[in-house]
Design a protein that fits this description.
By secondary structure, the protein is of the alpha/beta class. It contains five helices and 21 strands. It has a six-stranded antiparallel sheet. Helix 3 links the parallel strand 17 and strand 18. Helix 4 packs parallel to helix 5. The radius of gyration is 20 Å and the shape is globular. The two termini are about 25 Å apart. The structure holds flavin-adenine dinucleotide. Flavin-adenine dinucleotide binds next to strand 13 and strand 14.
């Protein structure tokens, strides 16, 4: 059985099955709402229910700590009646925007002891359109897929660069060091709707944990290419110095933007051994280096625990407006596949 879902204040309506999430039904109907993880963790899809009743999918809780009292997470809610939703924003998706490719690995380089930089080339003459900060889904071979953020800027659209941390026992990532030049990988992109306000000139703080640096690099390379000028701080966390694996990129941004601030936060390094780096976690580095965040925007990317810790500090202690906190959460496990129905 399905129910009709209408977007408040518009003439848009679409069907949603009782075992389908509101987000997946919207994506299937060609309507893009804000989202990232699609697993009820990041909070990007939080929005209002103006009329009707919804329930958590498979008994899941409909909310998490990122929701305002009147909001639910559209990615884990399903309708029980016809519903009117009041999303924070929405737009029609270009049906041709998401594509599948069989990409070829042309470079696979170790960047840190547990990180590989994987460069994929698309078939001749083909281009992958995406926005800085978006991710792709990669077929693992057992019928499931995994999500990886593009680390290159969108203008480099005939190739894609991924930063992949080797998760011990991970079905895909643990195999990455053995991937060879010429190996083929099935991918689909773009996914994710985290993006920075184009017209804003406000100061921006990026906080990345480990390979959470990948989408941040894409955004910063894109900003550099477009010569966007605004005060920028990057806090990049790793356990030890070797985990800050692309210092050349940081040096390039420092040359382009003389006021660019970079703080490496090393959680397992003693203060006397940390040198120029901050000895501690990224949330501790944030409060030490950015204690007043009123009027800023903050983009945070990494594991769920790290993103939650940074959100708490930024909003509760540093005065960041909750709406100015943007997160891309690297939730483990297979990707949720239903949004692929939006593929042309
Ligand atoms: C939007 C997004 C972007 C991402 N971008 C990146 C990126 O740029 N770089 C990067 O390194 N990683 C990224 N990730 C994480 C990535 O998608 C994989 O989850 C990660 O690489 C592990 O995959 P795997 O196949 O190696 O491990 P898996 O075999 O999936 O297992 C990894 C761990 O997760 C646990 N697990 C497995 N299934 C589940 C499940 N259903 N629920 C909960 N836990 C489970 C396992 O026990 C294991 O501990 C991203 C994730 C998301 C959601």
């Amino acid at each position: 059985m399905s129910h009709r879902i209408a977007i408040a204040g518009s003439d848009i309506a679409f069907d949603c099955a009782e075992d389908q999430s509101l987000l997946d039904a919207a994506l299937h109907a060609g309507i893009e709402l804000p989202y990232s993880c699609r697993k009820g963790v990041c909070g990007n899809c939080a929005g209002g229910i103006a009329q009707g009743e919804v329930d958590g999918l498979d008994g899941a809780s409909m909310r998490n700590e990122t929701c305002l009292p009147e909001q639910v997470l559209y990615c884990i809610c399903t309708p029980r009646t016809d519903v009117q939703i009041a999303p924070v924003s929405w737009h029609r998706v270009d049906p041709a925007a998401r594509k599948r490719f069989t990409a070829k690995i042309f470079r696979n380089q170790p960047a840190a002891p547990d990180v590989s930089v994987l460069q994929l080339r698309l078939p001749a003459g083909q281009r992958a359109k995406f926005h800085a900060g978006q991710y792709l889904q990669l077929a693992v071979g057992d019928g499931s897929t995994r999500c990886y953020s593009m680390a290159n800027a969108p203008h480099e659209s005939d190739a894609l660069t991924l930063h992949i941390r080797h998760v011990p026992g991970g079905a895909f990532s643990a195999r990455v060091p053995a991937l060879q030049q010429g190996d083929l990988i099935d991918i689909e992109l773009p996914f994710g709707a985290v993006s920075l306000a184009e017209a804003s000139t406000r100061p921006i703080v990026f906080v990345a944990g480990g390979t959470g640096f990948a989408p941040v690099k894409s955004i910063l390379d894109d900003m550099a290419k477009r010569r966007i000028e605004r005060p920028i701080t990057l806090i990049w966390g790793a356990r030890r110095a070797e985990g800050i694996y692309l210092r050349a990129a940081v040096a390039k941004w420092q040359r382009q933007w003389p006021s660019f601030r970079f703080i490496a936060a090393l959680s397992e390094e003693a203060a006397d051994a940390a040198g120029d780096a901050f000895a501690g976690r990224v949330d501790q580095a944030l409060i030490a280096h950015c204690p007043a965040l009123e009027g800023h925007e903050l983009y945070c990317c990494g594991s769920p625990g790290m993103v939650n810790a940074v959100r708490d500090i930024a909003v509760q202690r540093c005065g960041l407006a909750a709406a100015d906190f943007h997160a891309d959460v690297f939730v483990d496990g297979p990707a949720v596949s239903a949004a692929t129905a939006a593929v042309a």
